[in-house]
């Protein structure tokens, strides 16, 4: 029995820019810049046709520090593509029904093409109650049960941008995923679960790990492709990896004044074939993909053929 090879789509993806010793570094920024440039062109064309640019409503409830940092990044991404970023601040001490009312107003606003809600939500505000109010056609981060269901069934819908970024960064770096043994560490609705489903679409054989996984190291050690979204700094070390693995580190952990991933970069880079750095890997790609979804949503809302299909569903298991 032969193990599936890590087949390159291009002649040699590893020959591209990498680390002088050890794994190739998969940077998100160049891919994100390419996506943003295409988004910018589509925003200009949309504005010419309709007289206004697509608007992204960023709903911010409370003032959690990680949200504030993320907010600055997404607003900057909007500015760079011509998208209008509208921050909708809702105070910390607010009831679920007030939040629902504000989101319904955004659903009905014809200028607003997409809505995202910053997390974490303040204690006592159930995520489900908030997410389910968003119009699925404006739910560009794919969290509404309708979009999550479409993903599960392999149909076209909005995908969670971070999970999509985790898969896209590997594909766009030239690696073929079909047939790989993939392990995903984490099963959140936002990252781990959709990443596992997307990798299934790519014809990987997927194992999903979580806190109650009995032997995490064994599952990690078999992975040709490892995606880690655990929120636990340095959880995965080089000695756990299969030599030559592709490693996607989604984790963003603030430790002192450092941003660290879930993978111990220094040990992993000597064992992996390619690895995403933190910061600078998946993170920059996430916002660009989100804006790609926004433009697709805006076009669909105006009855135009959307290129969402090319962005969202390259499903092998659609029927
Ligand atoms: P989350 O909701 O806390 O989920 C973490 C998942 O990891 C859970 O399924 C948990 O298992 C699992 N896990 C935690 N510790 C583990 C351990 N020791 N062994 C095995 N599994 C473990 O977090 P999230 O929202 O998915 O985010 C994950 C990470 O990604 C965070 O660092 C976050 O900051 C980062 N993130 C990055 C981006 C980006 O754009 N790059 C976007 C979003 C999130 P259980 O289910 O059993 O609890």
Overall description:
With 319 residues, the protein is an alpha/beta fold. 38% of the residues lie in helices and 15% in strands. The strands form three sheets. A six-stranded parallel beta sheet has the order 1-11-8-7-5-6. It has a three-stranded parallel beta sheet with strand order 3-2-4, sandwiched between helices. The longest helix has 22 residues, at 29-50. 45% of the residues are buried. NADP nicotinamide-adenine-dinucleotide phosphate binds next to helix 10.
Query: Overall pLDDT, averaged?
Result: 90
Write out the distinct hetero groups bound to the structure.
Answer: NADP nicotinamide-adenine-dinucleotide phosphate
What is the rounded distance between the termini? 31 Å
How would you write the strand order of the largest sheet?
1-11-8-7-5-6
Structural class call reads alpha/beta
Number of strands: 11
Low-confidence stretches: 1-11, 308-319
Major β-sheet, in short? 6 strands, parallel
Strand share of the residues?
A: 15-25%
Into which percent range does the helicity of residues fall? 25-40%
Secondary-structure element order, N to C: EHEHEHEHHHEHEHEEEEHEHH
Oligomer: single chain
Rg on CA atoms, Å: 19 Å
State the shape.
globular
Number of helices: 11
């Amino acid at each position: 029995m032969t193990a599936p090879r890590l087949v390159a789509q291009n002649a040699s993806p590893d020959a591209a820019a990498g680390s002088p010793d050890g794994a190739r570094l998969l940077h998100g920024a160049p891919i994100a810049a390419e996506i943003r440039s295409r988004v910018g062109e589509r925003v200009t064309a949309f504005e010419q046709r309709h007289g206004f640019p697509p608007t992204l409503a960023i709903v911010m409830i409370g003032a959690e520090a990680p949200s504030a940092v993320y907010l600055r990044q997404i607003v900057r991404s909007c500015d760079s593509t011509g998208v209008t970023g509208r921050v909708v601040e809702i105070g910390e001490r607010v009831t679920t029904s007030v939040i629902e009312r504000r989101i319904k107003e955004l659903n009905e606003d014809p200028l607003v093409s997409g809505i995202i809600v910053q997390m974490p939500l303040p204690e006592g505000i159930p995520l489900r109650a908030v997410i389910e109010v968003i119009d699925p056609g404006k739910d560009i981060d794919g969290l509404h049960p309708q979009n999550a269901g479409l993903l599960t069934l392999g149909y076209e819908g909005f995908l969670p941008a971070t999970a999509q970024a985790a898969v896209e960064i590997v594909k766009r770096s030239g690696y073929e995923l079909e047939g790989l043994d993939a392990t995903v560490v984490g099963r959140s609705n936002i990252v781990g679960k959709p990443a596992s489903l997307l990798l299934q679409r790519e014809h990987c054989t997927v194992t999903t790990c979580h806190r109650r996984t009995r032997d995490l190291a064994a599952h990690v050690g078999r992975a040709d492709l490892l995606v880690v979204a655990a929120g636990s700094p340095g959880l995965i070390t080089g000695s756990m990896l299969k030599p030559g693995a592709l490693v996607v580190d989604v984790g963003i952990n603030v430790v002192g004044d450092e941003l660290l991933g879930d993978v111990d970069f220094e040990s992993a880079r000597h064992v992996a074939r390619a690895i995403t750095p933190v910061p600078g890997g998946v993170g920059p790609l996430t916002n660009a993909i989100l804006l790609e979804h926004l433009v697709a949503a805006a076009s669909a809302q105006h009855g135009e053929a959307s290129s969402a299909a090319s962005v969202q569903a390259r499903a092998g298991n659609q029927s």
